[in-house]
Every structure is written in C-alpha cells, then in structure tokens.
Amino acid sequence: MDFAPDATTRDYTDRARAFLEGQVLPAEPVLDEQLAATPDDWTVRPVVRELQQKARAQGLWNLFLPGDHGGAGLTNLQYAPVAEITGWSPRLAPAAFNCAAPDTGNMEVLNDFGTPAQKERWLEPLLDARIRSAFCMTEPEVASSDATNIGTLIRRDGDHYVITGRKWWSTGAMNPDAAVFIVMGKTDPDAARHRQQSMILVPRDAAGVRIVRPLSVFGYDDRDHGGHAEVAFDEVRVPVENLIAGEGDGFAIAQARLGPGRIHHCMRALGMGERALALMIERASARHAFGRPLADQGVVREWIAEARIQLEALRLLVLKTAWLMDTVGNRHAMTEIQAIKIAVPRAVQQIVDRAIQLHGGAGVSSDTPLAELYAGVRSLRIADGPDEVHLASLGRAQLRD
Amino acid sequence: MDFAPDATTRDYTDRARAFLEGQVLPAEPVLDEQLAATPDDWTVRPVVRELQQKARAQGLWNLFLPGDHGGAGLTNLQYAPVAEITGWSPRLAPAAFNCAAPDTGNMEVLNDFGTPAQKERWLEPLLDARIRSAFCMTEPEVASSDATNIGTLIRRDGDHYVITGRKWWSTGAMNPDAAVFIVMGKTDPDAARHRQQSMILVPRDAAGVRIVRPLSVFGYDDRDHGGHAEVAFDEVRVPVENLIAGEGDGFAIAQARLGPGRIHHCMRALGMGERALALMIERASARHAFGRPLADQGVVREWIAEARIQLEALRLLVLKTAWLMDTVGNRHAMTEIQAIKIAVPRAVQQIVDRAIQLHGGAGVSSDTPLAELYAGVRSLRIADGPDEVHLASLGRAQLRD
Amino acid sequence: MDFAPDATTRDYTDRARAFLEGQVLPAEPVLDEQLAATPDDWTVRPVVRELQQKARAQGLWNLFLPGDHGGAGLTNLQYAPVAEITGWSPRLAPAAFNCAAPDTGNMEVLNDFGTPAQKERWLEPLLDARIRSAFCMTEPEVASSDATNIGTLIRRDGDHYVITGRKWWSTGAMNPDAAVFIVMGKTDPDAARHRQQSMILVPRDAAGVRIVRPLSVFGYDDRDHGGHAEVAFDEVRVPVENLIAGEGDGFAIAQARLGPGRIHHCMRALGMGERALALMIERASARHAFGRPLADQGVVREWIAEARIQLEALRLLVLKTAWLMDTVGNRHAMTEIQAIKIAVPRAVQQIVDRAIQLHGGAGVSSDTPLAELYAGVRSLRIADGPDEVHLASLGRAQLRD
Amino acid sequence: MDFAPDATTRDYTDRARAFLEGQVLPAEPVLDEQLAATPDDWTVRPVVRELQQKARAQGLWNLFLPGDHGGAGLTNLQYAPVAEITGWSPRLAPAAFNCAAPDTGNMEVLNDFGTPAQKERWLEPLLDARIRSAFCMTEPEVASSDATNIGTLIRRDGDHYVITGRKWWSTGAMNPDAAVFIVMGKTDPDAARHRQQSMILVPRDAAGVRIVRPLSVFGYDDRDHGGHAEVAFDEVRVPVENLIAGEGDGFAIAQARLGPGRIHHCMRALGMGERALALMIERASARHAFGRPLADQGVVREWIAEARIQLEALRLLVLKTAWLMDTVGNRHAMTEIQAIKIAVPRAVQQIVDRAIQLHGGAGVSSDTPLAELYAGVRSLRIADGPDEVHLASLGRAQLRD
C-alpha cells in the first residue's frame, strides 16, 4: 500500500492547478458578463472557447478517457485529482478541458460500444469539441431510478427505428450545438427485466424532436453548460445503424456509463468542497464581529476542521474506487462506486451549506460561487438515482455477503 | 393551561384557510405567467392586487397589527395560525393580506414610534397597500449582526440630516412603488454601544438615493415581492422631521421591530414546512418505484413522521412565544424569540430538503414550489442575524441565570 | 389557548421541587452507600423508605393516579410537571412519591380493570407501598413490539389457568418484595390478531415461577429499583379469578397501560434532561482550560442553547399530549403519544451525551449522575417498542389521513 | 498510489484473523465466567494467560512495536489491520497479543527514551508480559487536555525526586501486577509552557503511592484489563535515575507517545465498528417482526449501508495516517492523527448505537458485546483530550495554512 501519487499524476495535477489559477478563475467574471449580455443564448460562450484552445494546446484535453483511445491515457486513479481540480470551477473548468458531463459519458459510450461509422460521425467531433451532445434517460412521469419504468418506446420499422416518448433533465440539450442525443428506450417491453432497454443515437435535427422547455435548478438555468431540457420525441425515425450495440443492451450500457460518470461527479464534488472550504477559511479570517474575527467564535473552527476531515477521508475512498476500477474493473467496484455516490455529495452539501452560513447574505447571492455550488451538489444527490436507492441497494449487498 | 384556540382564532383561521385554498393556491400559476410575461418589471403583479381586494373585502387585512390601531385587533397568539396559513404560499398570501415583510415591520415601527405627520404620510398608504416600503439595515462590508459595525452615517446639518452609506438586502426595494426606506445609521459613533444608532425615513425619490443592483437568493430574483436591492445613499438630505423617535434610539427600535418580525417569519416558516410535508405525503403515495409506492420504502415514513413531530413541537413553542409577547411583553419573551428564530427555520429547511429529495428532479425545478421554498427558508437562517449569533447569545443567557 | 399553569399545578410543583431539593438530592449519596454496603440485596433500601414516609406525610403520594380513585386527583396535565421534577433523581424521587414504573402502570391496570377482590389483594398494598410488582410482557426470543409474536401460553384447565413461557426485562422483579407479576400471554393463538392475548396476575411465590437472572443496562444492575429480571414460568397454575378483565383483552389493556406509561417516561426524561443541562451549565462556568472557562470555548454555548430549545419545545408537546389525554382521551392522543415517545428520549439522550462530553472522565464515571442517566434514557428508546416501530407507525398514520 | 496490502500485511492479517476466530471469540464466555467467579480480583485472568502463550507461540506478539527493537518489525501501515482485528474483542485480543494500552505506549516510551537500566528493569518484563504498567497523566481537578494545568509536582531532593499529586483514569492500575507507573508532573512550573513537565518511573510499591479507588465507565469496572484507578502520590521518593529523558522533556514525550497511542485506538475502534456491523447484519436477517425480517424494514438497510461507507472511508484515513507516520514521521502526521482521533470514535459510536437499537433489550444488556463496546468507544471521545479540543486545534491549523 502506498499513498504517494505517481509522477504522471503529479505532473497533470500541477499543470491543471496552474491552469485553474492562471486561466480559469480569472475567467469566471468574464463568463458572468457574457451570460448577462446574451440572456437567451444557450450556446457555449466565447470565453469557454478560448479556454478550450489554451487547455488543448497544453495537453489538458480529453483526460477523462482511459486507455489509449485518443485521450492522454490516464488511469482513473491518475485522472481523479485532475477532475477534482476542475470541480473548483464547475461552470468553466470541465468544459475547458473537454471533460464535462454529459459529453464525457457519451464519448465513453461511443468509444466503448460505437461502430466505426458512429465514432466517425459523432465521437470525433465530440473529442474536438466541435459539437456537444445530450443523454436522454430520465422521464418526467416515472421514477427513472427503476429502469423497468421507462416509457419511451423504440419500435423497429423496416430499416428504421421509430422513437416516441418524453424525457427531461437532458443536460446540455438546450444548447443548439448539442447535435446528437443518446436516447434510452424500450425495444422489447416483454423481455427480461434488464433486456428490455436499448440506446439509440438521435440527431437533434431529426423530425419529431422537440425541445419543450428548459428546467431550472434552484432558480438557476445552468445556461453556461446548455441547461437542462425537457424533450419530446414524437415518432422520430432514425436508421437502424443508429442503434448502439444491440437491442436489449441499453441497461448494460447505462450501467457501464454510470460507473465512470458517478466517480467523475464525485471527484469534481470534492473540488467544490475544497473551494467552499477555502472560502470558509478566508472569510473566517477576514470578517470581524463583536471585536474578533469569526475564526475565534463559536463553531467556526469546528466547521473548518470537520470539513477538512470529511474531504480527506472521502477523497481516499474516491481514489480507492478509481484504483479498483483500474485494477479489477468497474463491475467489481460497484459497492465503492455506490458508497462514494452516496457519501461525497452529502458531505460536500453540508460543507457548502456551512460556507454559505459563514458568508451570510453574500453566501446565498451571486457574490460568491457558493449558492450555485450548492444547487449543483444538491442535485447530485438526485441525479443517477437518489441516495436512498443506492443506500438500500448497498445495504442489501452487505446483507447478502 | 389550555391548548384549545379561542373562537376568534378559529374564525380567522377558518377564513384564512378557505381563502388560501379557494383563491391563493389557484392564483400561483397565474403569478408565474404574469412574472414570465414581464421580465424586468419589479412592481406588484396584477394578480396580487386582485387578491388584495378580495382579502380586504373579507376582513383578512392588516391582521398582523396588534392592539386597536387599525388592524383587526388580534393578539400575537390569535394572529399566529393565520400567519402560518400564509406561509403555504409565501409569494402570494402574505401580500394578499397586506401582511408581508418588510412592510409589516415598517408599519409597526411607524405605528409605535412615528409622529402623527409620519403616520399620515407613510403609515396610512402602507395600511392601504397604496405604497410599499423597504428597511435598510444590513451593509455589505460588515457583519451587521453586530450593530456597532454599522458604517452608514446620519449627520445633522441644520434642519436636515445627511445620510451616506451603502446598504444591501433591502427587501422590496427593487419595486419602484416602494416609496419610503427606513434607514439605520449612526448619528453618534462615539456614544455608548447601543446609543450610536438612529433610524430615519428616506423617500425613494430623494436626491442621492441610488438602487445599485438586485441581489439573487440562490438563483431567484424574488421579483414577486420586490426583490432585494443594494442601495447607495450618497449625501442624501432629508428634513429632521424624518427621524424616527430620537437620536440614539435606532438600536432600541430595531430590537422592538425584530421581535414581531422574527415570530412572523417563524409562523410563516411553519406553513412552508406544512406545505412541504403535504407534498411529501402526496408524492409518497402517488409515486411508484420497484413495484411499490415510495411510502412503503426505506426512510420515507420516518421522514414523514419526523416532519410531523418537529412541526407539532415547534408550533407549540411559537405559540407560547406569542402568548408571552401578549402577556409579559416582547422584552420578556427574548429567550423564546431567539429559540424559535433558531429552531424553526433549521427544522423546516430539513423538511423541505427531504421533500425535494422525495420529488427528485421535480423537487429542484420550478415544477413544485419546493426549491423556492428552500431558498426562502434557508435565507431565514441568515436574515436578522445568523443562527450562530443567536445560539451564542441564548447560551450566554442560560449561563448567566 | 393559555400557557399558564393553574394553581393546583403550581402548588404541587412547588412542593415537589422543595422536596427534591431538600430531601431527595441530599439522599443520593446515602443511597450509593447503602447499595455499596449490601451488594446482593435487591430490596428497597432504607433511605427510600424514609423518603416515602416524608413524601406521603406531605401529600406527595400516588399523584400519578388520575381521577378520584385514591390519588390526589390530578389530571395528566397537572401531574406532568411533578413527574418531570422526579426525573431529576430517577433512582429516588419516583419511588419516594410511589410514582415509579412499573408499579404505576400496574396500579392503573388494577384500578381500571381489576375486580374488587383483585384490588383488595394487590392494589391496596401497592398504593401503600407495602409490596412492589412487575410487568412481564417482553420475551427474549421474539420482537415483542409485535404482540402477535408473544410465545407465552395461558391455558385454561378447569378452575385454573396454566402459564408457560419465558419473559425478560421484567423491571423490579429481582426485588423479593415484588409480590405479584402481571403476565401477558396468549389464551387463544387462533383468535384475531389483537384478541389472542390476555393478562393474568401471578403471585411471585406460585409454584413454577423462577427468577432466572438479573439483566444489566450498560453495566448497571439498577438494583435501586429492583433490577430487571429474566423470569421463567413453567406450568404455573393460578385460579381463574386471577385473569384481568376477560380472555382476549390483553392487547387492549396493554395499549391502555402504555399510553400513560409512555407519557410518564417522557415527563421524567425531561427532568433528566434538565438536570444534565444544569450540570452542563455549572461545569461550563466552573471549569477552565487554556486560560478561559469552557463556557467561552467552541461549541459549549451552542450545546447549552440547543438543549434549552429542545427541552422547551418538547415539554410543550408533552403537556399538550397530557391535555389531549385529559380532554379527548388516550385513544385520540395516540399520534401525540407516539410523537413524544420518539422525540423526547432521543433529544434527552443527546443532551446527556453532551453533558458527559463536557465533564470528561467525570462524565462517564459514577462521580456525576450523567452516565447512569444516559443508560436510563438510552433504554427508553427501546422500551415499549423501539423508536423505529413508532416512527413507521406514525408515518403510516400521516399517510392515511 | 496503490491500495493493495503487501505480503507481510496479508500474512499477519490472515493469522491474526484466524487466531481471533479460532481462539479469542470462543474464549469470551470463559472470560465472563472467570470474572464472575472472582469479583474482587483485578489481576489478569487465566484465560488471558493461556491466549498469550498461544499467540506468542505463533509469533503474534508485540506487533505494535515498530522498527527492529524486539517486535516483529512491522511498520505502522502493516500493523494497522492487525490492530483492527484485535478491536473485534477488545477485552481479550489486545492483551492476548501483548498489544494492549496502556502497556504499548509505556513500552514505546521506554523503548524510545529509556536508559539501558530502565529498559532492563521495566521494558523486558513488559515485553514478556511478566508485569503490567500504568500511565498517570490525567488529574481529577483540572482539564488535563491543557498540559499547563497539571498540578502534580516532581521536586528534586538530592539523589531523589519527590512526587506529590493526585491522578485518575490510570488505566490498568487496579491490577496489583501493574508494577510500574509512568507519572507526568511538573519539575519546573516556571519554565516555558511546554518545558515545565517531566515523566518519571514510579514503582507501585514505593512508599506514598496509594490506590484510592476504582473508577467505572458507565456501569463497567473494566476489571478485565485492570480497571481505571484514582491514585494518590504523597511525597513519593524515587531515585533520580527514574526520570525518563531529562527534566522538561515530559510534554515532548507525551506528544511522542500519544501519536501511536491514538492511531492504535483508532485501529481497534474500526474493529469494534466492524463487529457491531457484523452483529447488525446478522440480527437484521435473523430477527422477524410484523411478518418480515428486520432487514426489509424502515431504516435498517440504510444503517447498514452508512456503517459500511463510514468504516471504509475512515479505514483509509487511518491507513494513510499510518503511512505518513512511517514515511514522514509522527510530527508531520499531526493533522491526520487529530483527524482520525476525532472522526473514528464518533463514527463507531454511532454504528454501535444503531446496532444496539437493532438488538433491543439484548443490545443494552450483557447478552451481546454491544453495550460494553459502546462504553469503550464513547470513552475514546474523551481520552487523550476531548474531540472539541482536537477540532479546535485542527481548525486553527487549517486557518494558519
């Protein structure tokens, strides 16, 4: 057992941190200005494009993609601390490195399961950030954490599939440059529980695709990364070649996709927690009340200490999970993936909440990144299945062993 | 000791509930439409005006004002359950009954401390809802929970006072109909700790008053009730008659104002919690996953039970506090006022958070009132002094006894 | 609604408090000495006998018994604050006032359901404290919170019932003066779910009754109030006249008994919490570390404030529950009884735990009453059904409404 | 970074686990019998002697001692999982391996700071388990977490030191075989804050040493490992050669001793948590109520899942701390040592508490090890400084950085 990061990790971490501090954090107010200047524009803002060019030039690009399929070839363990650093500025840094959800997950799906033609048409431009994508899984009418609930139908009709259904929380789909949607639906509602579902590529401009409306998260439209859309699919026809892998493979692909997706979310969430802690420390020192800095009063030191402890312990659990994924495979890291999916957002939510409390009015407003970080991390406790589903599942697994 | 409400309370409660259900809740989507249709308009929406007319016609008007000074003459104990009912729809119901902060507090200040001329000019139109008002106390640069930190200066210059300073979180001040601001500042920075401050009436249209910008709470602009403004006062001159009570009375007036203000917030927060619980119960029954309603799974029943217990216990504490204010006066209810100020928002925050969790994506979006309720109740833990200041103060009081 | 206690309540409260401070608290070290001097003696210690004489002489006797059946005729609402005061010294004060469980519950059962002969033989000497009693309900092999699990059989055989089964947590039964046991068993395992059970009076000296062993609670034998016994009933024959009410009435009697039993536990638990808070306050002022009293450090004031808030809110909920029992009957106070059964021990456990923490080594040892108070209040979360059963039940009731 | 344990670790872990399961757990009821048979005997029970012989024969002996000074030469990282295994049976396993506190810490002090003569006289028999020892640091009258509070004086008088003071919580000192006490006192109350204290070896049989009384933890006397004593030192004279290191070195030695001591406590606490979790899982499956196993009800699966997550995350933090101690030294692992000292007992306390709750009456009694585990882990939050002192210190360190 050895807790020292290797040279590659140290190298990427150092460069990512330098980029964050030198390029990304100073660009945050620029993003705010650009968003304010163009209220109805859901495309990627110019400042992001500029950061992407700089990051790509420095080799900080597509680092999420493991193996030698076009990325930097980092293992999950090596990528983890880089992803954490991007969590400090979740509106800018992941996009700058072309490592933002849902594109990362979609690229992985195409990389792992796509045909050469699918890769050429969709994966290449995604790796180049020429287009964006969306993942259409969650549905408004049902508890989507139970995949058998899915109501969208993918019906075979000669050389085409015909897709009908309603999706929401399709992150990024408000962006007109999101050129392709990966849609989960049922090809065979009578098949075995986890063989009913398939995934299919649907071009944005296919007839019958309709963006119904944007959804907000605690008042935020998340326009910086293409928002979240409700999308209607009304008899949408796509060629059979658009199916990913085979009929009935949808659930398995979703599981394969969610593993890395969840760990990436957790890595970034740790970075969000670190930023909140840094702001807490700064505020506690700088702000005075009743003649003393806040740092000398009441529970403030306890909050800071508890945040530090939580982040240290959970970071190790995330790293161990990454190591398991690298060494024994995602499948055998299921318990750990569930564990961090539950524990990290919950802990970071509390850290951000306390940071807000310490900042008073500035904490809930847009004068600090805290309220928006809160909305983001709070959503993670719901996205990809609520905590409670994972807790019950993990508990069941323990009871079985 | 008797826990049965009296006939007056039952009467007002019944009527308020009928109005809520018959008039207010159906008007919520109308408010959303009217807000969406006029993005830059901070005035009171037409639907609120209509509700106000109906409520006034039914005698559901100015109920917050105790005693026989123009309201319905309810005691705090009698008003409490009515205020709770308005908390079910905090964007509409308090305004409909002309019982919304900060106007209520401002009316109380004018009622208790105003000269006849001040009352005629400002209190009368406020009681009629012809104008709105703002309360300018919190400042961006300092911890305002410590009144000695206040930086705004009110300098006497002949027959005028000259006001210079910067305020924020002036709720309602974005509304151009907010015709008057009650401003807290220092008339004598060298006086005893709690005799340095004074309060003064500043007309919105006085030269030197500048609305700097709106502030958001999480991502909400709270336009429905006039938003929250940062306001600059740059050598603003008002006649000496605009001073409320005497020089040095500002801290005492603030204390007198905050007691009822805090209990009103707590009453409404209980209603917010009740609405979240009602939504939780509805969702738990209606939503199915893994073949069973959510109500039959994991922690859901525990959440519902704990919410019910918390609301019952805290309601009693709020009611006892109201009874103390009625029988021994606000001053002798200080401990209880602090207790509910700490305990109620904290508990309701958790209830709303759990309701959000049970609703998944619908919970964080605008499809339910939950996310906005969350933002509202979360802010209460900061407004009028953060929890921690009150906890330390209440703890100190216990140690003294 | 009126939160002022009536004259009778004030009178009894004043006298009970005076007795606590003047007689009971000074007797605590005497009890310790008497217990240490006679390690294997489970009878009531002499110091308790003396306190009983004094209390009875002052009319502080059998106050728990509502109505005019021999007690002071207090309502539940009037008795509540007296019971709270006895919670300050749970090893002495309840026994001193002849208001200690399980005798109180047993006396209530005999009072409400007993025949004249049963009352004469058992109730009279219990009201006089000439004998003690035990309640034999919980069984070691099954989850007794589910009454259908009960394995003890009560078989009719001519003019006798024959009882066979194993009970534990029979509080007080180690005391040889506990002359009678009320035993719950099944007379008809095939009857409807809640008509299978009956209760029967079993004299301690009946053939086949065997005290198996004492049980400890966190290392304490609770010898001061007769310990907790495991008891075997091996073909124990008692005359049919010993049945309480009729066959199949056992569940209903248990429910009737548990309502008051639970509220009494909660009242006393509040007193335990108040004593822990008083000790916390004293310690925080008296103890110094790093040059300052503990009261000035870290979370101490917050702990004290939160304890005060919790106790105030929960006391009101207990009092309202008592008022409901008095005005609409135990049956219609079920939700409130469950609510306090869940909420009070949980909150007091935390208060005592924090008081222990503040006392360091003295807190876990016998130098303060805290560790033993902890063991007592911790057990309340298990006794009469664990929290979780009540939470689920209360949650279900909310979902039904 | 590599999370796989090395071959040595796997070897010792496997053997320790086999010994635990084959020898230690079956010996637990034997220990109970032997303790019950000899109520006033504080010496090591025969069953422990037998286990020691077997363990020593298998090379499971003195594993705690790092380096090549007589132990197995394990690093802290290698020893950690072995120590965790001993935590499953804290009354037997640590003693069986001669790895029980406070002897481990005392042996480390002698090993690191002792003279050859001191080692020969005290260390050798301790390593052989021929004698036991105690560590006398905490004092009843003062907050000992602040070392400047220490009141015991060590006065030089010619060739002797004369020791006067009062200590308590001297674990193991009730055992007459505890032949030597390491006593912390002040040699120079006027020296710099952390140079006032010295440590000195005091033979149990020195004139003036008096064992005042045993202390209990909750209701346990902890007789299995020599209890906890209050000890009076009344003008006790020992030769100057008994001083450990030099005058004024006491604080530094204490710090050096506490680092490993704390991590050992945390390792064992993890084992205590694992045992509680194992019992929880077993009970949840075996016990039925309302027609279903507890595992299918309410919060049980959530409790199990949360326990698993907590233990995994905290184990990694403990292991990383051990690795830091091995690679950069105890001094540079201070933050991590404090972190685990705070986080592990707190988490394990909750796990044990929930296991108790799931076991009902069996949980608080001696029928499961849970209540005694609870008392043990609860005390860890007080021993070696309460959580709050460490939280404040860790928070301060973060604020400095």
TrEMBL record, chains A, B, C, D:
Q: Where is the Acyl-CoA oxidase/dehydrogenase middle domain?
A: 134-235
User: In which family does this protein belong, per the annotation?
Assistant: Belongs to the acyl-CoA dehydrogenase family.
Pfam families from the UniProt entry:
Acyl-CoA_dh_1, Acyl-CoA_dh_M, Acyl-CoA_dh_N
* Assembly with partners or alone: Homodimer.
Q: Which residues form the Acyl-CoA dehydrogenase/oxidase N-terminal domain?
A: 10-128
Residue span, Acyl-CoA dehydrogenase/oxidase C-terminal domain: 248-397
Cofactors: FAD
Listed A to Z, the keywords are: FAD, Flavoprotein, Oxidoreductase
Q: What is this protein called?
A: Acyl-CoA dehydrogenase family protein
Superkingdom, taxonomy of origin: Bacteria
